[in-house]
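ok so dumb question maybe but i'm new to this and my supervisor (M.) told me to 'just get the structure for O-antigen ligase family protein' and walked off. so i did the thing. is this what she meant?? sequence i used:
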Amino acid sequence: MPALHRSEPWTLYCQKSSTALEMVTYVLCFATMLVALIDNNLAMKLYTITAIAGLLALLLRGKPRSFSSQHWLLPLAILIVGAVDLIWYSAFKVDHSPFRATYHGYLNTAKIFLFGTFLTLLVLSSKIRLNRETPFYILYAVSFIIAGYAYSVKTATGLERIDFGIGSATGAAYSIMLVGIISAVSILYTRRNHPLLFLLNIIAVYYALMLTQTRSTLLMFPIICAIALTSSYLKSPKKLFFSVVGFFILLVALVALFSKPIYHRYHEGLADFTNYSSNNNSHSSLGARLAMYEIGFDIFREAPLAFRSADERGARMQALATEHPYLQGALEFSNVHLHNEFIEAASLKGLAGILSTLLFYIALFFTVYRHRSLGLFALTLAVIGTGLSDVIIWSRSIPIIMITGIVLILFIKTNRTDRAIS
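this is what came out, is it supposed to look like this??
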């Protein structure tokens, strides 16, 4: 009996330490997500510290009370994506390869997703409940900080398409959209759920996206927000009506304000498609994408079960482009990726790559359903929608934002279980 009494203070100490570390983990997730918008290297270091804190919190928590699929399916899917990437990297990485960027990108992705297993498992089994709504308003303010920073970058540099210093305007747009969705949806988890504030947040994010001039996000983001609005206020017809009307009025006003760059990007995309389909010219943004899809599928079809090195894929891309000159535009991106999650995964990791990506998407939707999470639903639509036109499960900044965003959106959902709308 005395031994039991002595063990109780230790158990209590572990529980308190676990709770403290868990809260530190969520704060670090928030900080890391923001840093990933502007600094890849620092974000990776912060993410590693965040994962260590999350792992320690899990270990101190002890044996889980439940092994329900709602707790482990998403972490398992994330683990599998990371493991497949690590196996692929370990099998094919060679020194002094001309495809060093591809190998390095997948090594980073493997680390981020393997570490993400701890973070998602921690939040899905969390017992922490907050009594204050301050964190929701802090998250909400992020979009306005991003919009202000985007304006300052545009003013200071005069760039036609801002890139936030992370490499490309497209990458910046994807990052802004993912963070913006988390920021916008957070206000819907407050007790008053502020439809007007939600609309203002959308406009702030859309303004920043306009400055990147990334076509896919300019189309996708309003659709996702419209779905979120409809889902959130479906049981309140009056709020739904005024929110939707206000949303479209503000959206039209903002589109009118940026009509020239939107018009230019639209006709540029139309010209790219015409050149590819009618003139067999893939030397354009959209044409190169279509050529990459065709080449990637052909490579996969040759050996569906095989893993291939980036060097082997590059050589095969060169051969196919030589055989079919209209595919030459794809070669510019042979040292990066093929701009579609499934095509990219299939061309390097075969069927295993396709299934690991598909499992990740299914696990996201399953978690949305089990937790009735509107925020995760919106984020999932963005992740999948973007993955069909580009590759975001790759490299550092966007995967970090993806994982930390999932953690934060699930954490705020668990703290709003009293809400009828989730």
